[in-house]
Design goal:
With about 60 residues, the chain is an all-alpha fold. Helix content is about 55%, strand content about 0%. The chain has one helix at about 20-50.
Length: about 60
Amino acid sequence: MPVGTNPSETVVKTILAPWQILLVISATVLTMTFLMVLPPAALVIWRMRRLPQISLQGHV
């Protein structure tokens, strides 16, 4: 067995291409944007469904 090679410690070296790095960053940004926009949008839709609709004739 060569000196310095220990089978218990495996080091995985991955070199990502620039387009892969950009893909991961853009996917992360899209996911975080979706998670930030979703709760307020759901709250607005929920409030619109709970509030009574106001008709143009003045009747509820």
